[in-house]
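User: I want to check something. If I give you two sequences, will you return the structure for each one separately, not as a complex?

Assistant: Yes, each is folded on its own. Here is the first sequence with its structure:
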Amino acid sequence: MLAVELYFPELRGKEGWAKHVPPVAKEVISEPLAYGIAVALHRKGRANMATAVLTAFECYLRAADIQNAKCKHFIFLDPPQGPNCEYHGVLSLPKTKRGINGSVYIRGKLIAELLRRQERISSDFGQNKDNRLFQFTLPAIRKQLKAVLEWFGMSLHNTALHGLRYGGATTYDMHERLSRDEIQQRGRWASAKSMRQYLQPDRAHAQLENVLENIRDELQRRLAQRYELLNFTPPPDASGGGKNPSRGFANQT
């Protein structure tokens, strides 16, 4: 199809042509890389973008989901809910690609705390729960993402915000944190076939083994420092992602 487009570029504008062009897979942004990006953004004074990156990874968000999220769409759950008290927040998604209302539970306490802080900041910005949850444009976060990846010395080929959606679903599948049916529901995919396109363990392993080889130590340090995103005092088992981090909440803006 790409060869046909090369010789007949006028076909690109034809109705229905896009359906015949195979999609180009995005690079998977793995969990260590997602946290590395978030810590780097936080240190650059882009705490709102750091929160958005981790939320997109955790909730398998599309770029449009990030842009459309409003303060009133996030609810912090205190006490936590769920079978093992693992749900620390809920993010509603009234506008999705499928055109139906959806919601996703926030399973990580750190990310829920980050979202609670972001919701407070954005609400106070205009004293309005209808305010956008993340006060930045998509071109702005893409520019910052590109800069961080360049600083990590990584190739930018086909790496985009959508790679966080790939990475979140792939990570949950690789580590069996959820069943595939639960991943499909969490990612709001219409079918298992659609979901399976996002599960790319081979790409994730290749990134961890090859692409990240030169920055692995740096990413591990940043992963261990993830609690600084909210000035948490890391629990004794921080390296393993402790379940009950100290709530050293900082009123940062």
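And separately, the second sequence with its own structure:
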Amino acid sequence: MADKVHGLDINGDQWELQDLPLTQEFEAVKPDILSIPTELAKRPIQLCFNNITVLPADWTDQSASPDIPGYPFRASLTTSGVTSDYSPDVRFDITAATLGTLAPVAKCTNGVVYIYASAAPTQNIEISTIICTKAA
């Protein structure tokens, strides 16, 4: 005797498994179910940090040995869980983004994202979001 299972799919349509014992139905979808962890593992790991304020006092002069030529000022932003194999996407608010002094790139190291400026900002720099993606 075959068991029956009823349900709704993601579109709200009804479905019914029948005419096969449930073990046979499971065996039919087992490869798809087992591939889910593999597919999830392929997704990049991302860490997000929101609503960060960088104060004028947070900037240090790295003129003697700048990480990025033309941008001698650096601010260190604490970002728990980030390591040097992450790539940061820093999204400044519109006021900060239009200053013309912030570098278009940033760098990650253990627990820190570095942002850079060509001149030391004299006002707070607001960052709406930093998304750090782990390299594959």
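Because they were folded independently, the notes below concern the second chain alone. Residues 22-42 form the longest helix (21 residues). The beta strands are 5-8, 14-17, 46-54, 59-61, 73-78, 86-92, 102-109, 112-117, 125-134.
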